[in-house]
Amino acid sequence: MSLLKHINSLWWIALSIIIMQGCGVYSFTGASIPPEAKTISVQYFPNKAQLVEPTLSPFFTDKLRDQFTRQTNLEMVDRNGDLAIEGEITDYKTTPVAIQGDQTSALNRLSITVNVRFVNVYEPDKDFEQKFTSFLDYASDADYNAIKDELFEGVTEMLTTDIFNKAVINW
Question: Is the pLDDT at 94 greater than 50, yes or no?
């Protein structure tokens, strides 16, 4: 009897896989990707901000590429993907916030803005060009160089999530 249950379970698993494959590119993130789309290209995002942080461009570009390869079944290609993303970092700054009574800042804010151009070969009505900005606050007495990598990680995570959502989840 257990062999019959095992065969029945395998049949349902196989049927589920066939149904999912028939729906095109499927993602557990809720991504809405045309079934014809098989590739994505994410170009290098140069830093065109007034203040240039040398490690920011490669760090951001790699994180954006990772976001799409981790959450979709699309193959990353160098150029001309079915979905294509390019852009530049347009602003990178640290500014004081939460000014106290003695005119000193309790917090500083790291803000990063990127301009993104997205092209969907199969659904051109979803193409866009848009600026995305994210920020994190940190204690003004903190050593910026000691926490810079952690700040980059946090701000970049928010930016790449926003870009991913706009591009393929349509939020």
Answer: yes
Domain of 9, CATH number, reads 3.30.160.150
- What is the spatial distance between Cα 47 and Cα 119, in angstroms, rounded to a whole number? 21
Q: In terms of residue numbers, what domain contains 18?
A: 2-169
Angle between helices 56-71 and 144-164 (to 10 degrees): 40
pTM reported for the whole predicted model: 0.79
Total domains in the chain come to 1
Distance separating alpha carbons of residues 4 and 167, to the nearest angstrom:
45
Parallel, antiparallel, or unpaired for β 128-139 and 105-120?
A: antiparallel
pLDDT (tens digit, 9 = 90+) per residue, 112-133?
999 999 999 999 999 999 999 9
Hey, what are 50's tokens?
Answer: 């007034």
